[in-house]
Amino acid sequence: MNRILVVGISGAGKTTMARAVAERLRLPFHEMDSLHYVGPDWVTDPEFRHRVTEIASTPAWIFDSLGYPEVRDLLWAHADTVIWLDYSRAVIMPRVLRRSLRRTLRRERIFGGNVETWTGWLSREHPAWWAWTQHAARRSEITRRVHDPRFVPLHVIRLASPREADNWLHALRPAPLQ
């Protein structure tokens, strides 16, 4: 496990899991949204594809994402492992709602200095709406990908609950010190 994607819907805990695995295995962690959004008003990096391509060509990394459409196939083609946080809506929704509410109330700066706003909650792109409306579609897409002949060689670790994920993570052997 040297090139890892942690996938799932918004609110599954991809970033938290990816950071924990990166620390345990001593891999460079890359937060996809921080690479994608580089400025206020959700400005995207015009060099995003190039930056991700450079990272993907290195021998070791972990991303907390399925990948934005423009880099998705590239990442899946370079990965050796997919950790799939395949949680139900009943698990996801309280998580994403708590996180977005906290971010909105505290005006927390995220990716590129952006903040979640009350008016943003009305957008179909808001994480809460996205998690609710895209849950089944995201699960279907990941299922298709893990069965796609191009990606069958990937080692897929499908975790169906936070407890299962915690148990798996605790059993993961740390990389030796060098």
From TrEMBL:
**Domain spans labelled ATPase AAA-type core:** 4-45
In its UniProt entry, the species of origin is given as: Sphaerisporangium album
Task: List the PANTHER family hit by this protein, alphabetically.
Answer: TOXIN, YALI0E33011P
Q: Which domain of life is it from?
A: Bacteria
- Name the chain's protein: AAA family ATPase
Q: Name one GO molecular function term.
A: ATP binding
